[in-house]
Amino acid sequence: MQAITVRDREAGASGLALTELPYPHAAGNDVVVRVHAAGFTRGELAWPGTWTDRAGRDRTPSVPGHELSGVVAELGYGTTGLTVGQRVFGLADWTRDGSLAEYTAVEARNLAPLPSDTDHTVAAALPVSGLTAWQGLFDHGRLTAGQTVLIHGAAGSVGSIAVQLAREVGARVVATGRSADRGIALGLGADVFVDLDADRLEDAGSVDVLFDVIGGEILDRSAALVRAGGTLVTVAAPPTVKPEDGRAVFFVVEPDRARLTDLAQRLRDGRLKPIVGEVRSLAETPSVFAPGRGRSGKTIIRIVSDSSTEAGPQ
Ligand SMILES: NC(=O)c1ccc[n+]([C@@H]2O[C@H](COP(=O)([O-])OP(=O)(O)OC[C@H]3O[C@@H](n4cnc5c(N)ncnc54)[C@H](OP(=O)(O)O)[C@@H]3O)[C@@H](O)[C@H]2O)c1
Fold first, then answer.
1. What ligand 1 atom has the least distance to the C-alpha of 180?
2. Domain-embedded: residue 190
3. pLDDT of 284-296, one tens digit each?
């Protein structure tokens, strides 16, 4: 099968290459998925799990990509809850070969059924962004109706989903981003937009929950905005600051089949719309993986077209 691989930590995105790999092995509790569409996170080449397995051993050449939508091709021994031929979407494991491939083996618990009328391209934009936004706002941030949340990077993959989920629950949303992001953030339902290039963050007012995806100096300046009893949640890096009278939380997104199922329902009935940007082929992945300003929406790699049959291994 064809896959995108990386071998050299120092090479960054320039080290990505289209490679021929063996069909993946389905271990116990695994599902092999025929990947129809895949998503990736631009920073993942810096994650330790891209290069080593769970025991810390080198696992290169490794296949990046942690979001997928496709069809179950094979079940490993003992796998329950899914069946061959079923449409599914979800997360690839952090320390195994990922979704930028024709087939990938993942733990069954990482996947949820995908309704027949939901497009694989849109579904592949949701697993990491949707679960991260949900877990950040509600599990870690404990956001409730009537509270105010500030969401950094509101036009990005995670931020844009967070704005929509926060609005739906009845929170007041202060969104931030670059000047060009204003229309997107307000269009998604944000009440206020703070332009991080032109406005003073400190004028945003106090908030109950601050959800950060940027880190660094912007995160450091954000802690002071969190009101007493509130929470600063970040997914960028463990924070070195903490609200004076509140909590600071860093977390890594967890697989959650029930929540993915719930997010798929929101997608279906139009309550949630991931912003999909460019849709490219597997062979084009190296040219679109590198970080670049001005890219709007999540880039999706489409591996099987809609007109293809959803068959198992060939
Ligand atoms: N811990 C976890 O479990 C977890 C899960 C998901 C994501 N993440 C991390 O969260 C981060 C965001 O992920 P994502 O997929 O949402 O990325 P993304 O789609 O690139 O979104 C990030 C957004 O923040 C904006 N931004 C970044 N730096 C900025 C700055 N200095 N000023 C103003 N706006 C800025 C970006 O604008 P530009 O594109 O113009 O820079 C973009 O709109 C990444 O670092 C990712 O690795 C962590």
1. 40
2. yes
3. 999 999 876 556 7
Residue 256 lies in a domain: no
- The dihedral formed by the CA atoms of 75, 78, 79 and 84, expressed in degrees to the nearest 10: 30
Digit-coded pLDDT (tens) for 84-118: 999 999 999 999 999 999 999 999 999 999 999 99
In degrees and rounded to multiples of 5, residue 308 shows phi and psi of: -75, 155
Question: The domain spanning residue 218 has which CATH number?
Answer: 3.40.50.720
Please indicate whether residue 249, judged by its CB atom, sits closer than 6 Å to ligand 1. no
Ligand 1: residue whose CA is nearest its atom 24: 153
Q: Is 36 exposed, middle or buried (0-12, 13-18, 19+ CB in 10 A)?
A: buried
| pLDDT of the residue at 293 | 54
CA 213–ligand 1 middle distance (angstroms): 5
Q: Please report how the helices 127-134 and 257-268 are oriented relative to each other, as an axis angle in degrees rounded to 10.
A: 110
Mean pLDDT of 194-204: 94
